[in-house]
Input
Amino acid sequence: DAGVIQSPRHEVTEMGQEVTLRCKPISGHNSLFWYRQTMMRGLELLIYFNNNVPIDDSGMPEDRFSAKMPNASFSTLKIQPSEPRDSAVYFCASSLWDRGGGYTFGSGTRLTVV
Amino acid sequence: EDQVTQSPEALRLQEGESSSLNCSYTVSGLRGLFWYRQDPGKGPEFLFTLYSAGEEKEKERLKATLTKKESFLHITAPKPEDSATYLCAVAGATNKLIFGTGTLLAVQP
Output
């Protein structure tokens, strides 16, 4: 298995531009999570899906952030418009909805907004 | 609200010097407590899941234990390659995985 695949690995964009981060979860996993990691706040859960349905988006910081999961093998996190304070590493993780085992993380997307 | 607190924030050890990392937690309906290792520029790498108080798991020089309020990650005779950030997380009744801020471990030769 190739694991959780995220793209791009690095993204540099100008303030005000739209940014789309992509994630392909592990085949067979039915839960998908988006996290943001910064030095100040550590790993923060933004949103998670179960069976492609958003379950909890209480961690999404503002309306500028949105996430979709159109099918079991693909998810996107969009920021529009982007701001410098959005600069962070964004991770996607997937798991099986069971006793909480096996959350597997991707390699992350390092976003820099200038 | 589910919460995880890790200590110390940073730990420097000499090669071979054993120690423990602490993870204190509060969670509604524990589904699992997780330990991850994170190297610079990489995503968290899964180490262990513990499900109930009294449970222990081992992997090479690492041993994780769990009580009703905290978990310890014991590192026996560490090597420089064990240097990393160690993250603790809990999943509660909602299946949300909530992380602590981690312990940065440096093992000097």
